[in-house]
Amino acid sequence: MADSVSVHHVVTEADTAVAMGSGDVPVLATPRLIAWLEAATVQSAASLLDAGQTTVGTSIRVDHRRATPLDAGVTAEAATPARSEGRRLTFAVRVVDDEGEVVASGEIDRVIVDRERFLASVTTAD
Fold first, then answer.
1. What are residue 13's phi and psi, to 5 degrees?
2. Measuring CA to CA, which of 16, 50, 73, 103 is 20 to 30 A from 35?
3. Comparison of pLDDT for 48 and 124, the residue scoring more
4. DSSP the chain
5. What is the pTM of this model?
6. Residues 10, 70: contact at Cβ < 8 Å?
7. What is the pLDDT of residue 125?
8. Can you tell me the distance from the alpha carbon of 15 to that of 33, in angstroms, rounded to the nearest whole number?
9. How many CB atoms lie within 10 A of CB 31?
10. Is the pLDDT assigned to residue 72 strictly greater than 70?
C-alpha cells in the first residue's frame, strides 16, 4: 500500500479467539485483528490533524479471510487517505502474513473531531 502505516505483530496466546472469547480455536481473533487495524488508522490519521484534533472510529468493513496460527507474524496496514472536504476519513486497510498472503482487507472510517469538545459531550455513568 502506497503512503501507508504498517505495524508488524506476532500472534500470541492473548491474541487468539479462545483468549478473546470470540471463538474456540487458538488462531488470531477477529477482534484483535480489527484492533490492530484501528491502531494503524490512528497512526495514519495523525499526519492529517491540526492541534487539538483527534479521530474517532465510526465504521468498520473488514473481511477476515485466512486463519493465522500462534507465533505467526502479520503486518497491519492502513493507507493514508487523501484529505478531502469534511471530517470523514476512509482508510483502506489490510493484514498480510509473513508469507505475503492477505489475511484480511477492507475499510475503516474515522471522523476528525475537536478532542476537548468531544470529551465534553461524553457523559459518564455514576
1. -55, -40
2. 50
3. 48
4. --SEEEEEEE--GGGBHHHHTS-SSSBB-HHHHHHHHHHHHHHHHGGGPPTTEEEEEEEEEEEE-S--BTT-EEEEEEEPPPP-SSSEEEEEEEEEETTS-EEEEEEEEEEEEEHHHHHHH-----
5. 0.92
6. no
7. 66
8. 8
9. 15
10. yes
Map grid coordinates 479462545 to a residue.
18
Res 81: pLDDT = 87
Q: Name the residue with cell 484492533.
A: 35
Which residue in 104, 87, 106 sits closest to 45, CA to CA?
87
| Vertex 36 angle, CA 17 and 2, to 5° | 135
Q: Specify whether the CB–CB gap between 17 and 27 falls below 8 A.
A: yes
2 pLDDT exceeds 90? no
For strand 4-10 and strand 102-114, is the pairing parallel, antiparallel, or unpaired?
unpaired
Q: How far apart are CA 42 and CA 12, in angstroms?
A: 23
Q: How many residues does the chain have?
A: 126
